[in-house]
Amino acid sequence: NNANPGTLAQPWATIAKGISTAGAGDTVFVRAGTYAEKLNLNGKIGTAANRITYRNYPAESPIIDPSSTTGAAIVRLRNCKYITIQGFEIRNFVTSSNAVTPIGIEISGSGEGIEIRDNKIHKIWQNYPVLNDFSANGHGILVAGSSSTAITDLLIDGNEIYDLRLGASEAVAINGNIDGFTITNNIVHHCNNIGIDVIGFEGTNSNVTLDFARNGLIAQNEIHDIDSAYNPAYGGSLTTGGGARSAGGVYADGGALTVIERNHIYQCNFGIEVGCENTGHNADQVIVRNNLLRHNHQGGIFVGGFSAGVGGTTNSSFTHNTLYQNDVDGVDNGQINLQNNISGTEITHNIIVCNTSTKQFILNHTTTCTFATDSIDWNLYSGTASGSAEFEWQRHYKN
């Protein structure tokens, strides 16, 4: 009963009561059960020494299930500081309308010290059925830095994010004015678009000089079964597939100053992508190292813009990764695919094991990339006899 004092013996009835009551230094424990609520934290302020925490009671698993197909995200934080959301199962926001964006957790405006820990987020479904229409969106977690003051010191750790239908969007999206983030130890799987995306220059922030996520770490995540074939936005059925396979496990799309390391990515359309879809901008100073990328459908690592008319990749490095038999579909993308508008980038000290059918390693289809001498070197190539191995450079094939 919300008239209770909120003790273990006399608890409140709703999580919303805990949100409205708690202040800096407080922890609100939520007992097991299903809560038909959407939670709105607007301007809640803790401090680094006295956080406000909303979490599961020890050894219990509370469920937030509003079963609502309209309105805002299930859990929404706007202009908050030093808030922790921990230990919830967040589920069941389903819509077939392109006017509604289903979201599990949304962080927007400005913010500092927000932590999203150990939650399960699933059945966030954008079921808009119109084929090849990119007007519908959905997210498991969306962080949108729309303020002139950046979202900083953000942590997303230990969550399981799965069974999402995302339309034109991503399971975890870090977008706009975000300066300092950590995404670690999460499991992202069985989603029909991109797993983790670090985004810039989409107009999330009105100031283009601030409109990109930066100074981040994406590490020790397990990402698998990310497949846009089951996405109507890509021409596929939600249940039987058939659409274009264009979704990466991790994508730095205009993000900058980000380290992507020690992730295990498999059975996704692409392993890791680093580029930019917006003309005149680049993914810049992205470090991709020590990742295991295996058995991804279309290829392992994709670098640069998807066409010469969009952005690209600058001042980045791809080192000490293991790429094992990607391009399972045999569509001739190789293990590392160099696309458009690449400069100042190195690819060294990787272990690259080719697909046994295509036998391709590093492919460069275009003439829009510039590489310094020795910037692609010290890689170990394996998986086929040297006479049948295939490389491509500016449309020229070498065996």
How would you portray this structure in words?
This protein has 399 residues and is mainly β. It contains one helix and 40 strands. The strands form three sheets. Strands 1, 4, 7, 10, 14, 17, 20, 23, 26, 29, 30, 33, 34 and 37 form a 14-stranded parallel sheet that branches. A hairpin with a 2-residue loop joins β39 and β40. The mean pLDDT is 96.
DSSP helical segment count: 1
Content-based structural category: mainly beta
Q: Give the low-confidence spans.
A: none
- What sort of overall outline do the alpha carbons produce when their principal axes are compared? elongated
The helical percent reads under 10%
- Beta-sheet strand percentage? over 45%
Main beta-sheet strand count, sense and barrel state = 14 strands, parallel
DSSP summary, beta strand count: 40
Give the rounded overall mean pLDDT.
96
Supply Rg: 22 Å
How far apart the termini lie comes to: 74 Å
Outline of the structure:
The chain is an all-beta fold and 399 residues long. Helix content is 2%, strand content 46%. Strands 1, 4, 7, 10, 14, 17, 20, 23, 26, 29, 30, 33, 34 and 37 form a 14-stranded parallel beta sheet that branches. Strands 3, 6, 9, 12, 13, 16, 19, 22, 25, 28, 32, 36, 39 and 40 form a 14-stranded mixed beta sheet that branches.
